[in-house]
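Example 238, ligand uracil.
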Amino acid sequence: MASTTSPTTQTSPASIPPSVFTLPHTAQLEALYTIIRDKNTSRGDFLFYSDRIIRLLVEESLNHLPVVSKTVETPTVCFLALWLYAFGSIYEGVGFEGKICGVSILRAGEAMEAGLREVCRSVRIGKILIQRDEETAQAKLFYAKLPPDIANRYVLLLDPMLATGGSAIKAVEVLFSHGVPENRIIFINLISSPEGLTNFCTKYPQLRVITGWIDKCLDDKAYIIPGLGDFGERRYCT
Ligand code: URA
């Protein structure tokens, strides 16, 4: 018999910072996460189902962008006006305000670029490579290539896993140094740890985080528990 269960890995809402938004935890979403967390899932299925979640995350992130009023004429002729002049019915809607771009934190963040492009067709995408400095154990910037007008855009920052928050914090520093204001950055990820969210959101309270799931904790190697293992390894098999 079919049954529904409530998610077991969700942190209590009281501890979630107000700038964090999770996807609605429907049974459908839980089923997608169950597939990608399963260590026996094939690479093909991991790609397919993680892409479905990424698409949902990108759509949700667009809900956080400002819109302005926009009136359009539909092809449906307005009946009352027919005898005067044939013009379409009026629809008072909205349009997006301002330009956006994506910035992926390499290498795993690159996996989210296609999902962003599917939704925002000709979106500009920058890249940032951050790695742990073995001597200092700190996140270190190795490479950044960003759109030249990034300061005038909303930035969707892409990294699938928020563990300690070290790389994401460093990436935001890079965006600041290119003139992007904090409240124009939206950080998108599939799974967050409570520790990473606390670190990140305490440092950047105005920056919004869109996450699919908040897990229990980090282990002593900074892997998210229960997590899904190393996202890059599961995605690229290397
Ligand atoms: N990065 C990953 O890919 N997985 C984790 O659990 C933590 C960081």
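Summary: Confidence is low (pLDDT under 50) at residues 1-10.
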